[in-house]
Amino acid sequence: MTGNSAIAEAAIRAGCQCYFGYPITPQNELTEYMAANLSRRKGCSFIQAESEISAINMVYGASVVGARAMTSSSSPGISLKQEGISYLAACELPAVIVNMSRGGPGLGSIVAAQSDYFQSTRGGGHGDYRTIVLAPSSVQELADLTHKAFDLSDKYKIPTLILGDGILGQMMEPVEFHYEAPAELLVRPDGLRGAKGRPSKIIKTFTSDPAQLEELNWSLFRRYELIKKQETACETFMVDDAKLIVVAFGIAARIARGAIKTVRAEGLKVGLMRPITLWPYPSEKIQELAKGVKQYLVFELNMGQMIEDVQLSLAGQGEVSFYGRPGGVIPTPSEVARVISRLYYQKGLK
């Protein structure tokens, strides 16, 4: 399947009841798949909204009543959804948002890029909030992490973002689905389904009481700290004897893996650390690696956005270099291998 179709099928099997989207490349196949297949389940709704802003607010409404809801878009479309995502965070409402990012800034191009890292990992909209951010690197992982995104979102009552790109969305790979859709659609017990037998409840994002808003912020902060402790995930490759570690996520990590295989064949001791959760960032793993490895190369399809998180994680215990190709330029593994080799010898590694 294509990555976009795999996400959609995984979402249906995860019990997604409501999908609201608006067309934008390179993620239109996801919307198309949902339009054709979500309605096969009784009680599920697909709506092509009149805009990205409408779509995210429809997600907000569906989540209020306890439904599993999602939307998807690409970079400039996600920008338009940011106010709604902030509202979801403020109201402690789960939702799944997919960003198949493209080159930017501005309208940019439909070619794959990773230039939305800052937007994704720093909240993205106004206010002091976070979203869980998952970064798959294969079609199989797109499917697996979609299911996980719904579970994490419900567990912590937080919007969860899947950050992909145009390559992952369009490429075709074998994929296995390890679960079937639930026989009955799930409804969150805290959803607003009428006030029979209980006091009325209002979900709102505004208060004129600073003390009340401060308490909301601290409550969210405590939850974010819990997520940091329990939900970080990463993958390592050939790090046991490494003298240099490449840090890359998503499709860039696949390119880096090929490059590392090449330089390993030349005798260079290079490994890979791939964060799967971009927020919370797997800082503890980098700190563990830093006990033995002092040289790091951050490789991204942007101008260097993940560098900050790697530097913060190392806390001065390692040296960070960078190589990136922004704007939708996709380097080959051979190109990255040359960069790794040059840096390896420049740093006097043996």
Summarize this, please?
This protein has 350 residues and is α/β, with parallel strands linked by helices. It folds into 2 domains: 3-191 and 203-230, Rossmann fold (3-Layer(aba) Sandwich); 234-346, Rossmann fold, CATH 3.40.50. Helix content is 41%, strand content 19%.
Q: What percentage of amino acids are in beta strands?
A: 15-25%
Largest sheet: 8 strands, mixed
Characterize the overall form.
globular
Distance separating the two termini: 43 Å
Task: Classify the fold: give the CATH topology of the largest domain.
Answer: Rossmann fold
Helix content: 40-55%
The sequence of SSEs as H and E is HEHEHEHEEHEHEHHEEHEEHEHEH
Count the beta strands.
Answer: 13
Which structural category do the helix and sheet elements fall into?
Answer: alpha/beta
Question: For the record, what is the CATH homologous superfamily label of the largest domain?
Answer: Thiamin diphosphate (ThDP)-binding fold, Pyr/PP domains
Mean pLDDT: 96
* CATH class annotation of the largest domain: Alpha Beta
Q: What is the annotated CATH architecture of the largest domain?
A: 3-Layer(aba) Sandwich
Rg on CA atoms, Å = 21 Å
Low-confidence stretches: none
Number of domains: 2
How many helices does DSSP assign?
A: 12
